Amino acid sequence: MTSTSARALAVARPVIRGLIVLNILYALAITGLLVFSFFIDGWPQRPLGFDLMHEHPMAGFGLRAIVVIGVAGAAIVHTVLRRLLAIVDTVRVGDPFILENAQRLNAIAWSVAGLEGLRLIVAAIAAAVWEAGKIEAFSFAPWLAVLLLFVLAGVFASGARMRADLEGTV
User: Fold this and answer.
1) What pTM value is reported for the model?
2) Which of 30, 83, 122, 165 is the most exposed place for a label (fewest CB within 10 A)?
3) Which residue, among 43, 75, 76, has the nearest Cα to 57 in the 3D structure?
């Protein structure tokens, strides 16, 4: 392992743990926003400071739906970060090519696909509630990341199988 990758690995664990905390705070904040939105008179015009409902009567519903999707997204991100932390821990002890890491990467790939699906749902809600032609709904980069994660999961699974075969021959 090079000194650069060793330093990156040393930084990865505290950064991921910090991201877990930030993600939890984010989830709590938007959950609070969702709950309080039902008790705020004139939602969403009053907190925003302008009359959004006049031009877009479904804006309140759309904003609440997007917040619910944000909470679901935070839950998915939490599972991704926990799995990533587990992978980093196996790399730290020098044993990354295990079947559990392949399964973790596979689950992360599905999670990223789910997050991208949520993003598309948010774009659809925004297009339905606000202005259809002005919402960008599709990007290739996240789907390429999903594909890369599935391939990487396959590489880890193959590495774990090769390692098991090698240990069986010794």
Assistant:
1) 0.86
2) 165
3) 43
